[in-house]
Amino acid sequence: MHRLQFHYTLGRDSSPALVRNPLIDLLQAVSAHGSISAAARFMGLSYRHVWGELKRWEDELGHGLVVWEKGQSARLTEFGSKLMWAERQAQTRLAPQIEALRGELERAFAVAFDDQAHVATLYASHDDALAALREFALATGPDSDVRRDTPGPLHLDIRFCGSLDAIRALNEGRCEMAGFHTLQHPAPGSLAERIYKPLLRPGWHKIIGFAQRSQGLMVARGNPLALQSLEDVRRLQARFVNRAHGTGTRVVLDELLAQANLQGADLPGYATSEPSHAAVALAIAAGTADVGLGIEVAARSQGLEFVPLVDENYHLVCLKSALGHPATQALLTLLRSAAWRAQLDAMTGYRSSRSGEILSLREVLPWWEFKPRRTGTPQTHGRNPVAGKT
Fold this sequence. Notes:
Layout: H1 22-33, H2 36-43, H3 47-61, E1 66-67, E2 75-76, H4 78-113, E3 118-124, H5 128-139, E4 154-160, H6 163-171, E5 177-183, H7 191-196, E6 205-219, H8 230-236, E7 240-243, H9 248-259, E8 273-274, H10 277-285, E9 291-295, H11 296-301, E10 305-319, H12 326-336, H13 338-346, E11 350-351, E12 358-359, H14 361-364
Parallel strand pairs: 3-4, 3-5, 7-8, 7-9
Antiparallel strand pairs: 1-2, 5-10, 6-9, 6-10, 6-11, 6-12
Helix pairs in contact: 1-2, 2-3
């Protein structure tokens, strides 16, 4: 079975949408003109090129394409004729879909050719508000008040992953911004400090406020086990479903366990993980688990009950040097707009506190201690370098 591959070209000319293969053009020319030399002249190619391409395709496909007999016109083999037939059938049936595909590609590439448009790539921890922001940016037209001071239309290219992977992607230059979340007041010496501090460096990174949100226990409708805390989960041996290593919610869970003097082994199912808040909610709704830690909007979307445990901050972080980039400026304008803040406040379990504000690491994550500078001694910003290139 031979697989098909599709290719497209970029150009200024407006022409019909075609999905063509150069072999079909060769076969049509040979069939119509009766010889390779005549086909080559018709196509403006050399005899050597056409002959070599036909032989190459015969080797590639494992079938003969053209019959050469002395004193007679060249003709297509049965296989060559069937290829021509298959092409005609496919073109007839698929013409509308091909035209629609061309339209979608042109709309996508229009962004690249629009000097006023900007694209920002974000690697971020799973979050419903970020997905809503992406749609908000697309839905906000050029005449809207939100865009009045924006450098140009903004397209958010969001790749959802774990919080740690998101910050690593930023430090390695794979994105312009990362999204992660922590408890509102992460204490010095906490697990969050041990995990995030080596990845972030004052003077290099800047925090952009995004949202506050609630994390809590997602449980079945009516909360049949009357779970109100992680201690209840341990005491009743309720089936727990976790998030994967490297996710911000896994870090939050482990911090809450430590505060309650519990360990992961105390929760049945702690080793069982799902890739997102939505997946955890689906597992509980399906009855394969009793409880999991997640955000309220994910619980409500599956008809589950939600028991709030803690408020947290969802942060966006970028390199300080990226603050002046047009895409970053466009994002800040959106985050600060009254329309976006109203939409964020209307989302279940979210608040728009400090959305779009540029914050220092020391203010949001007070883990770095700065000693007074001694005479003749340069001031340092801690021992932990940024992981990866900055």
